[in-house]
Amino acid sequence: MDGTAGFFRLLHTPRVVFGRDFTLRQVAFGLLLVFCLTPRASPPIALALGLVLAQTVGNPFPGQTKNLTAKLLQCSVVGLGFGMNAHAAVQAGREGILFTVVSIFGTLVLGYFAGRWLGLGRHVVHLISCGTAICGGSAIAAIGPVLRAKDEEVSAALGTVFVLNAIALFAFPPIGHALHMTQNQFGLWCAIAIHDTSSVVGAAAAYGNQALEVATTVKLARALWIIPVAIGTAMLFKQKGVKIKIPYFIFGFILAMLVNTFVPAAQPLGPLLTHLAKIGLTVTLFFIGAGLSARVVRSVGAKPYVLGVLLWLVISTASLCVILHAV
Fold this sequence. Notes:
Layout (H helix, E strand, L loop, with lengths): L1 H11 L2 E3 L2 E3 L1 H13 L6 H13 L6 H19 L5 H33 L3 H26 L3 H28 L4 H11 L3 H11 L1 H15 L2 H11 L12 H14 L7 H21 L3 H6 L2 H25 L1
Antiparallel strand pairs: 1-2
Helix pairs in contact: 2-3, 3-13, 4-12, 4-13, 5-6, 5-10, 5-15, 6-7, 6-10, 6-11, 6-15, 7-9, 7-15, 8-9, 8-10, 8-15, 9-10, 9-13
């Protein structure tokens, strides 16, 4: 016990480096962050490093990384638009629209009945279902205020989808290779079956550039469903006077894609901006991993995980079967 206490004191004791006070935790965080800026770091590796940090020495900057994660992800997604062609994106979006509509409503309906069977509260069930159906944490953050959900309900939903995101980021690329999925098939599968945009883009980027283009386009088109689902939620749960959070960064992505396609003078900047966006995404996943401490994982409880896993397995398996046979 004394050894453990001494170790934690060592991690938290400030030391003077170059005239400034730093703890060993902060130094470890900084070194890992610098590594995530290098070409050797991929999105899965960055997430893994963040998870290791969270489970060992802990994240020394939880508030800062939480605030930066959403902004950095949004900027990175807009940057990816400078590497995409609008004509190809329209084709990808057209292919994904039917999958999107069916999977969103199917997930919400399945989540409702599975949640009742598990005896979970309506708010937690709806938040996890929306996160699975649309775009993970972004959907939960948008739907939570509409429901006037409690902080612990939002935290339980976020914890569930973030853990499943981490699993998907590592599991999906090997599955895609084992099944010899095409770039188009894998990109479409990622967009439908993985919750958060960050993990969708990370998994697709690990598979190939065409998969990345398809996955990003379909996922962002899917994210726009936050708006009608939020309106429907307000009506279903009889909430009046609520403010619906619109994901405006998606329009930035569309604008960047249009500029890259129709403004020849801007095209030379495309590779640089895309490269910076991929680095930003890698750092985003490091921050997400660093926020998933053992305490966060345990605080969710078993039943939300059961619901999240059930919905995830159904949507990922069903969409995989359809895509392999129809695309």
